[in-house]
Amino acid sequence: MNVIEVAAGLIWQDGRYLITRRKPGVHLAGFWEFPGGKRETDESLVECLQRELFEELGVRVDLPIPYRIVRHDYPEKTVELHFFRCAIEEGEPVPVECAEIRWVLPGELTQFTFPPADHVIIEALQRDAVREGA
């Protein structure tokens, strides 16, 4: 089975993370996620993340810092999610390629329905917030 590599941004601002809601008619429609997308064959994961965040939200981010890699098997495909911490350098996020966007506190992430692959990241971010006293 092919492995689909995805770069996802943990965009942090004023103590909150930016999450996006998937559009109707796509895989996992209606689920919330950390913005990002599939890596093209000719680009690095960092280039992928920067391109996807510009296409999806109209923002440019600083140099992403690797956070975690999560591999998840769905019935129809396997995804390898590369999560990066980053901050917006230019632009104000707007939902260009997603249904909706929200800024949420780490403790609020569990109030949203995320794909199964994201649960380990949400737990890690919440642990980090407790450890950092956020």
Index terms:
about 130 residues, alpha+beta, Nucleoside Triphosphate Pyrophosphohydrolase, seven-stranded mixed β-sheet, two-stranded antiparallel sheet, about 35% strand, globular
Low-confidence stretches: none
**How many structural units, i.e. domains?**
1
In CATH, the homologous superfamily goes by the name Nucleoside Triphosphate Pyrophosphohydrolase
Instruction: Using the coordinates shown, work out and report the CATH topology.
Output: Nucleoside Triphosphate Pyrophosphohydrolase
Distance between the termini: 40 Å
Q: Tell me, briefly, the overall form.
A: globular
- What's the total number of strands? 9
Helix content: 10-25%
State the helix count: 2
Average pLDDT, all residues? 93
**Architecture, CATH level 2?**
Alpha-Beta Complex
**Main sheet overview:** 7 strands, mixed
Structural class: alpha+beta
- Give Rg in angstroms: 14 Å
Describe what this molecule looks like in 3D.
The chain is an alpha+beta fold and 134 residues long. It has a single domain (3-131), classed as Nucleoside Triphosphate Pyrophosphohydrolase (Alpha-Beta Complex), CATH 3.90.79.10. 19% of the residues lie in helices and 37% in strands. The protein has 2 helices and 9 strands, in the order ββββαβββββα. It has helices at 45-57, 119-131; strands spanning 3-13, 16-21, 32-33, 36-38, 60-61, 65-73, 78-86, 88-90, 100-104. The strands form 2 sheets. Strands 1, 2, 3, 4, 6, 7 and 9 form a 7-stranded mixed sheet that branches. Strands 5-8 form a two-stranded antiparallel ribbon. It is globular, with a radius of gyration of 14 Å. It starts with a strand and ends with a helix. The mean pLDDT is 93.
